[in-house]
């Protein structure tokens, strides 16, 4: 049995070295779970890996430009520059796309061989499409509940390790509750990947954040993902603690997003996100909001904002 396992792992690594396989997308988005897009983690609610059930307002728009970094001892994965666009297409529904440039940096550490061996690469990554749907509205005693299904399209080069090579999916369930300046949200789901060298895996995250004055929102999350496969940097499960937030240059139209985190249990891993966010709409200026803010106008009757794990995208983690 041990010989068969070693033979399988060696074949996966040989595919990578011959540039025949793609690395997992989520490394971007973990992020981006999330930095993201090549690992199997989807983009989460920017800048965090945990997402929320809050779609953007009907007939409103969001644009992010960002970069992410996700790494273990086996490999470091980046995404960026990357663009994310969200459109409030219907009440309680928004449509989502991320188009990234992806990068992989194998460690080439002999001590980890045959894992983490191969050349560096940079180029277009897998494109992420998604639909966020809120189906339970928040009340005084009840959280809002929704889902954000992701479809990762194999536009990145699997031969160079910049894409998975096959379409893969992320199916989560998220809940959120706000009280005053405090907001908490989280949930979990499963990432479904059928490409060689990858595996289906669960993810769970929960976040608590607080508005500090009119300009700053800070938050911290605990995020867990299972092992993502021999072709990824995340070969073992890990639980990370991330700290990040938003700085509002103008409220809500223009904001800075930032996050950094590290493993506390499991395989050593780092995650980072840095980006800029713009929002606008046809119904006039929106109220005091941030990405995913439940307090903006129409939050109780129409959709509101997104990540990130994202989850996944084409680089670091799926």
Account of the protein in words:
The protein is mainly beta. It has one domain (2-281): Porin. The protein is 5% helix and 47% strand. The protein is built from 1 helix and 13 strands; from the N terminus they run αβββββββββββββ. It has a 12-stranded antiparallel β-barrel. Strand 2 and strand 3 (93-106) form a beta hairpin. The protein is globular, with a radius of gyration of 18 Å. The model is unreliable at 1-43, 284-290 and 292-317 (pLDDT under 50).
Q: How is the secondary structure organized here?
A:
Layout: H1 2-17, E1 60-71, E2 75-90, E3 93-106, E4 121-124, E5 127-136, E6 144-153, E7 168-179, E8 182-192, E9 201-212, E10 216-225, E11 238-250, E12 254-266, E13 270-281
Antiparallel strand pairs: 1-2, 1-13, 2-3, 3-4, 3-5, 5-6, 6-7, 7-8, 8-9, 9-10, 10-11, 11-12, 12-13
Provide a concise account of the structure shown.
The protein has 1 helix and 13 strands.
- Order of strands across the biggest sheet? 1-2-3-5-6-7-8-9-10-11-12-13
Instruction: Please give the alpha-carbon distance between the first and last residues.
Output: 28 Å
- Class inferred from helices and paired strands: mainly beta
What is the helical fraction, as a range of percent? under 10%
* CATH fold title: Porin
- Tell me the strand percentage band: over 45%
- Helix tally equals 1
Give the overall shape, derived from the CA principal axes.
globular
Backbone CA Rg: 18 Å
Number of domains: 1
- Element-by-element helix/strand order: HEEEEEEEEEEEEE
């Amino acid at each position: 049995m041990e010989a068969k396992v070693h033979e399988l792992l060696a074949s996966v690594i040989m595919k990578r070295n011959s540039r025949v396989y793609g690395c997992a997308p989520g490394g971007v988005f973990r992020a981006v779970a999330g930095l993201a897009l090549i690992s199997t983690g989807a983009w989460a609610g920017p800048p965090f890996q945990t997402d929320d059930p809050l779609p953007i307002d009907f007939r409103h728009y969001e644009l992010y430009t960002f970069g992410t970094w996700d790494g273990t001892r086996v490999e470091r994965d980046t995404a960026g520059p990357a663009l994310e666009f969200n459109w409030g297409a219907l009440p309680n529904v928004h449509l989502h796309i991320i188009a990234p440039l992806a990068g992989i940096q194998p460690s080439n550490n002999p001590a980890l061989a045959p894992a983490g061996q191969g050349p560096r690469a940079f180029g277009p990554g897998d494109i992420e499409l998604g639909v966020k749907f809120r189906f339970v509205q928040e009340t005084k005693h009840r959280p809002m509940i929704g889902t954000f299904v992701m479809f990762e399209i194999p536009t990145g080069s699997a031969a160079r390790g910049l894409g998975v090579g096959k379409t893969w999916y992320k199916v989560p369930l998220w809940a959120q509750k706000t009280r005053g300046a405090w907001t908490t949200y989280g949930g979990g789901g499963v990432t479904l990947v059928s490409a060689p060298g990858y595996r289906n895996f669960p993810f769970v995250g929960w976040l608590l954040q607080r508005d500090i004055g009119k300009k700053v929102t800070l938050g911290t999350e605990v995020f867990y993902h299972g092992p993502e496969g021999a072709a990824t940097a995340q070969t073992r499960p890990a639980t990370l603690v991330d700290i990040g937030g938003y700085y509002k240059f103008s409220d809500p139209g223009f904001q800075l997003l930032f996050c950094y985190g590290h493993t506390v249990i499991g395989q050593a891993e780092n995650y980072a996100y840095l980006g800029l966010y713009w929002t606008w709409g046809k119904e006039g200026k929106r109220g005091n909001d941030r990405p995913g803010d439940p307090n903006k106008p129409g939050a109780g009757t129409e959709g509101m904002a997104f990540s990130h794990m994202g989850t996944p995208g084409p680089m670091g983690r799926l």
